[in-house]
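Our consortium's second objective concerns turning raw sequence data into structural hypotheses that experimental partners can test. To show how far this objective has progressed, the report includes one record in full. It was chosen at random from the queue rather than selected for favorable results. The single chain below, 390 residues long, was entered without modification.
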Amino acid sequence: MRIRFAAYLSAAMLTFACLPTVSPAQQSDSSQTAPTLKAPAREVVLPVTVRDKKGALVTSLRISDFTLTEDSRPQTIKSFTRETSLPFRLGLLVDSRLSMSSAMDCERKAAGRFVDIMLPERLSNRPSASLDQAFLIHFDRQVELLEDFTASRDRLHRELDEMGPSRDEQNEALGSESSGNNNGGRGQRQGQRRSRRKGAQLYDAIYLASNEVMKKQEGRKALVVFSDGVDHGSQMTLNDAVDAADRAGLAVYTIYFKSEEERSMGGPPGGGGHRGGMDDGWNGGIGAGTGAAQQEEGPILYPKKSEVDGKKIMEKIAARTGGHFYEAKKKDNLEEIHGQIAEELHGQFLLTYTPDQVDKVGGFHKIVLKANKDDLTVVTREGYYAPAEK
């Protein structure tokens, strides 16, 4: 299945469906039955990763080892389990620009190994809904879903092997505005292209993966994003992309690799068509992205610094969503990093609690989870959006 997303992102897409991050009611003992896929609307589930001072995963913990607050109010943790029965719903997002081509073969191999680890051999007596599944998106001057959710390793491997820059990306390199007859990448397919824009559409890719592919899925959800973190052409802003991930209840694991463009400049690329950089907050601040929607709203105040720090952007995306940031200093590091992400996903706990106050509006709620031992580092999402009553 190959889908090029709609030619533009309409203003209606800015109005998100309010999805709860939910799990079933449980007793407050880590040894109790693990969460199932459906849950009462008010209950919140958080994927939690805990590491010791040496960076090793900690896999033996109890409810009493943590304190939890929501909007600075103490909360009662109902369950804290090492969950193995909930299926994974995973997305691979790959920056396929020509400036990333030096690492593409290694990324294909690493992502393929990740697929093999995360998607076990299919058992004939298991329904597909209970199986771990993954999808594949590539992005450059357009965003394309190369393979929708599947439990088939072979289908994902086939698309990874044939994945390459889109036709628009190649035409730009050739200095041509025509569609041409180039061959060399799964981006060159029949069908409607999502857009023709100036460069990497990182924010659009995360937004569309979260809002259009992941949002209605149940289970343990995560995106793995390979990019240099620099967005040149998205309609969505950085805040839009991260909010969409929050509303879909998924973590984003980012793998930063310095592109040829950055390497040739000795640092992050300058403006180069990117209208703004990274804002200082997460409340829709000016400078969060490049969107056409912003341009229609009136003048935009851009940050004084014209350079965009892609590494810092990738760090922010991972931190906000409860994922993990990795830097591949060499392309040979990619397989090891994908293996570390797989290990972390398999080592996660699931925490559930019922908020002490009911939110009927659907606002964002800040979560702080701390370990009682100072030598432990806890990683989870920074918050969640409550389900609004209709």
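The partners drew two points from this record. The CA atoms of residues 101 and 260 lie 8 Å apart. The chain has nine helices and 15 strands. Both points have been shared with the crystallography group to help prioritize constructs.
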